[in-house]
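Chapter review: from sequence to fold.
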Amino acid sequence: MTRRLSLAVALAAVTFVTFLSFAISTTTAPLSSMSPIPGTGTLGAAPSDTFSFIVAGDNRPASAADSQPKTPKHIFDSAAARHVAFVVWTGDMIYGLDSTNPSALAAQYKGFFKLAKRATVPVFAAPGNHEMDVKHKLGDTTIEVGNATMQQYYRKAFALADSTPIYGTFTYGNSRFILLNSEEIPAPSVSRAAFATASATVKLDPGYVSAQQLAWLGQVLDSNTSLHTFVFMHHPLHALKADMALDTASAAKVLALLGKHANISYVLASHEHLYYNVQTRDTTSPPGRTDPSTSPPYYLISGGAGAKLTGKPKDGGFHNYLTFTVRGTQVQATLNRLP
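The token string follows.
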């Protein structure tokens, strides 16, 4: 048996039982289902169509034994100082990757949630692979795969019922915000892209978006009448390193849905620990927009909220977060570089 085949067989064995429990318990959510991180407040109605919000992702520590880096504290303190309406986090909030120690995971979530409260405004989050995956050893290779137990720990931390999907949407002012779960568990029979190469001995799950979530996304987009639309996820639809992007088939289906609608303003992801504009590979502030527009959305990667950086500064390898300001028909996007 080849190494590639043996890996596939092992993965099927690891995920089969956990997938069944996940598939049975997950149902489609109402269109307005996204709740902020517990303890960060409740999002009220927008007082006007002029407001700001912050986007960041990938702050997780280097190991389960490490404390949170300083960067997320700085970002949340900036949110409070700037009086933004809310914050959106695009995953990898904790180190995670260990479904055998629930008390350790609970402590990690508690630590991040404590930081998030410093923003003094609601903080919304899309899950990353560090929240959803678990490590397995296959010979000399460590693989990280989606795990239903990890998803249950996530639900517990975020106070989500078993029937509530780990994705959702909310509306604020004249804008719609859609947070996707790019870390779902596929059935063993589903063929996906090859694992990402994190290192010579570590392989990362390529991510997955289920047919159920795609149907939900289609419903949200079809019913959406907001002037501006922002979409968030952890695994990017496009990436500098091809194997760091969302599973090829899943990405194609999400892109097809987005392509049917003209009011998508920005699509934001992380997973790569750097910042850049996907279309131009530019590492300066993103372009602004005036909507309605038939222009395609801007795809941005902002994965510099504190995790170890993966690129040189000239290539976007610097800690960062983004600030968006909506003023009626206009959106201004600002890159905030951090030490």
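Two observations follow directly from the output. Residues 1-30 have pLDDT under 50 and may be disordered. Helices lie at 3-25, 70-82, 102-116, 129-132, 148-157, 211-223, 248-259.
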